[in-house]
Automatic annotation (TrEMBL):
This is HTH cro/C1-type domain-containing protein. CDD domains: HTH_XRE. GO terms for molecular function: DNA binding. Residues 15-73 form the HTH cro/C1-type domain.
Length: 119
């Protein structure tokens, strides 16, 4: 069964979300990520329309410029993408707390779904 999202359409959606949230124009984003100023706007536009998918190194530069994890740009699940974007700016200590809380949630959810053993 084919995926309903292609990598390029997910990347396009996430890139545009992050760019708009950052308040950058396509040209500003492209130039900040190291794309030549004469083609910056056109290249970002092609990425946002899903016409082209950048190489990973360019994806990493775009993510760094937008202050999001690279994985955010490729994440299909909207909730997980939001979690990635929310967690990214946290300090390392706060990320550890968030991880511990997520692990607790996972453990409590799995313990509720387990069936008790019959002696």
């Amino acid at each position: 069964m084919p995926d309903k999202h292609t990598t390029s359409s997910v990347f396009a959606k996430r890139l545009k979300q992050a760019r708009i949230r950052s308040g950058l124009t396509q040209e500003q984003l492209g130039i900040s990520a190291g794309i030549d100023e004469f083609s910056a706007s056109a290249r970002i536009n092609q990425y946002e329309r899903g016409k082209h998918l950048p190489h990973l190194v360019m994806g990493q530069r775009l993510a760094r410029t937008l202050h999001v994890p690279t994985s955010f740009l490729y994440e299909e699940d909207d909730l997980l993408a939001a979690l990635l974007a929310t967690a990214a700016p946290l300090t390392r200590a706060r990320k550890k707390i968030l991880l511990a809380n997520a692990e607790t949630l996972t453990q409590s959810a799995s313990s509720r779904t387990r069936k008790p053993n019959n002696p």
